[in-house]
C-alpha cells in the first residue's frame, strides 16, 4: 500500500468522478485507475463500485474512507510541522466560514498573517455541516461557525463574537422615529431570508417557535449579498448578523434596526479538530484567534 494510492481513493470519494479525481491528483485517468486497483488488491476488497463510471463506494470503501483521510491528514501535518521546525511557518492556511461568520474573516486573517508572514490564507464559504465534515476529513485547517448550535464534534474552539440580529429595510419605507424592530413588525413585512440549509435560518426559526410564531419568507437565498440586493429593490426586508451592519453602515437606502426580544446572543468562533498533536498551522490559527480575544478585552 502506498500513500499515492490512498490519495487516489480519497480523491475519487470526494469528486465522485474518475476524470476529475485524476485531475485533482495530477495524473492520467489510467494511472489513477491502476492505483485504485492496486490498493484494492492489497486490501483484498473492492472499494469502489464502477462500470464505465463511478457508481459509489462499496461498504468496505465507506468503512476505510475515514481512516484513509486520517492517514493522509496526519502525513500532511507531520510534513508541515517538520518544515516549521526548520524555518518560519509557510504554506496555506485553509479556512471555511459560514456566511454569518464571514465578516470576521478579515480580522482573523490579519491577525494570522501578521504573526506568520510566510503563510497565505484561503477562505471558502460553507455551511456548518460542511465545515464539520471537512474538519474530520482533513480538508481544512479551521472553521468559523456557531459554537452553541450544532457545533462540530470533537473540536477545540475560541469564541470571537456574540451575534445579534439586525432588521434591514428600505430607509424610505419606515418612519424615521422607529429605532427598534419588534417581531410583530418583522413577521408582517415581506421578507427575504437565508434558506433553511443555513444554520442562521434554523436558529432564527427556533427563536420564532419559542415565541409561538413563525416566519414565512417570500424569497430565500444562500447569500447575504443577494438578500441585501432584494432589500435595495424595495420589495423586501431581511434579517442579518450585526457584524454585517458594521460593514454596511452609511448606505443611504438602508435602515439597520436592532431587534427587540431576540433572546441570547449566539457565540461564533474558530473551531479546529481536537487532535494530538496539533499541526503547526492549526496552532498558528489558534494563536491568532487568541490575539483577537485579547485585543477585545
From TrEMBL:
Transmembrane segments: none
A Pfam family: LysR_substrate
Keywords from the UniProt entry: DNA-binding, Transcription, Transcription regulation
InterPro entries (UniProt xref): HTH-type_LysR_regulators, LysR_HTH_N, LysR_subst-bd, WH-like_DNA-bd_sf, WH_DNA-bd_sf
Family of this protein: Belongs to the LysR transcriptional regulatory family.
Classification via Gene3D superfamilies: 3.40.190.290, Winged helix-like DNA-binding domain superfamily/Winged helix DNA-binding domain (1.10.10.10)
Presence of the UniProt keyword Transcription regulation in the record: yes
Organism: Blastomonas fulva
Name of protein: LysR family transcriptional regulator
Domain HTH lysR-type: from-to ranges: 1-58
